[in-house]
Amino acid sequence: MKQYKFLVALVLVAIMVIGVIGCSAPATESSAPAASGDASASSDASPAADASKAASGEPYKIGIVVKQMGAPYFDYAAEGAKKAAAEMGAEVISYTGPSSEDVNQEITFIEDLVTQGADAILVSTADSTAIIPTINKAMEAGVAVFTFDIDAPDSDRLFCITAGDAIESGTAIGESLAKQVDGKGQVALLTGGLGSETLNQRLDAIKAVLDKYPDIEIVATEACDDNFEKCVSQAENLIQTYPDLKAFAGVSSVNPPAAAMAIQSAGKTGEIISLGIGLPSQCSEYVDAGIIPELTLWDPGVMGYDAVAAAVNYLKDGSLPKDGQDYGEYGGTLIVPDGTTVGYIPSIIFTKDNVHDYEF
C-alpha cells in the first residue's frame, strides 16, 4: 500500500512538472511581442537621433540628383532647395545629374551620395522604373529618399513633391489645344523622355481629350530626352514633313520654347502654335509674338524648397507632409490628397497678361 501511495505521488509530481513546463512556454512567446514593441520604439526613435544631430550643430546632409544638369528648370529648383537648407539647418552637399538623360548615371550619383553619408537624397529621375532598385537600396541603407517633379511611385521612396496632378495638367493642355485649333487639324505631341511616368501620364491625358475630336489628327509623338537642341530639330522636321501642321503640345518644359523657335525659324508664325508646360523666362518672347498662346507651369524654386523642407522635417521628427502643410511665405501651402504620399504645389497659367511677372 505504501508503495502504491509512493507511485501515485511520483505521478502527481511528474504531472506538476509537465504543467510548469507547459505554462513556461507562453511566457517565452509573450516576450516576443515585447521585443517587437522595443523594435518599434527603436524605429520611432531614429528621427530623434537625427534631431540630436541637429542639436549638436551638425547640419543634415542633403543630396540632389536630377535627370539633366544644365536645364534652367532644375537650376531654379536647386536654388529653392538651397534656400530651404540654409533656413532649416541643413546643407546641400551635392546638386548633380547627367548632362543628358541617363538613368545609369543617376544610379551612380545616388550610390555615391549614400557612400558620402547623405542623410537625405532628393531625386528627379528620367526613368521611374529603372531607378527603383537604387532608391530601395538607399532606403535600406538608412538614407531618407524623396522624389520631386518626376516620381518613382513603385519604389520605397518616402514622399514626392510635384506640381499638379499629371492627368489633370495633361487634360488641361489637351482641352486648350483643342480650343486653339478649333477642334480640327494636324497636331504633334512632344515629351522629354518616354521613361518618365509623370510625362507619360500627361501625354495619355492629352490623347484622351483629343480622342473626343475626330477631326484632330495626332501626326507624331516625339521624345527629346529633355535636350533643347534635339527638340528644335524634331520640331523643324515635323514642320517640313507635315505642311498643314497646326500645333505642338509639349509636356516637358523644353518642348514649347523649342517648338516655338522652330516655328519662328520656319516663318510659320501665325500658322502654327506651341503650348504646354514651359518656363515663362524661356517662353516670354514667343508668348509676346503670339506663337505660344498660353503656358502651364509652377515655380520650380518652390518645389525644391518644399522638397528639402519635407526631408528635413522627416529627419527631425519622422513626420511627412500633411494636406495644407504650410512652408511659409516662400514655400506656400502643399496639397496632399487623402491616402497618398504625394504633395502638390499650385500650377500657374501664363499668358501675355502675366508672363513677365515671374523671374523663373
From TrEMBL:
<protein>
    <submittedName>
        <fullName>Putative L-rhamnose ABC transporter, substrate-binding component</fullName>
    </submittedName>
</protein>
<comment type="similarity">
    <text>Belongs to the bacterial solute-binding protein 2 family.</text>
</comment>
<dbReference type="GO" id="GO:0030246">
    <property type="term" value="F:carbohydrate binding"/>
</dbReference>
<feature type="domain" description="Periplasmic binding protein">
    <location>
        <begin position="62"/>
        <end position="316"/>
    </location>
</feature>
<dbReference type="Pfam" id="PF13407">
    <property type="entry name" value="Peripla_BP_4"/>
</dbReference>
<dbReference type="InterPro" id="IPR028082">
    <property type="entry name" value="Peripla_BP_I"/>
</dbReference>
<dbReference type="GO" id="GO:0030288">
    <property type="term" value="C:outer membrane-bounded periplasmic space"/>
</dbReference>
<dbReference type="InterPro" id="IPR025997">
    <property type="entry name" value="SBP_2_dom"/>
</dbReference>
<feature type="region of interest" description="Disordered">
    <location>
        <begin position="32"/>
        <end position="51"/>
    </location>
</feature>
<dbReference type="InterPro" id="IPR050555">
    <property type="entry name" value="Bact_Solute-Bind_Prot2"/>
</dbReference>
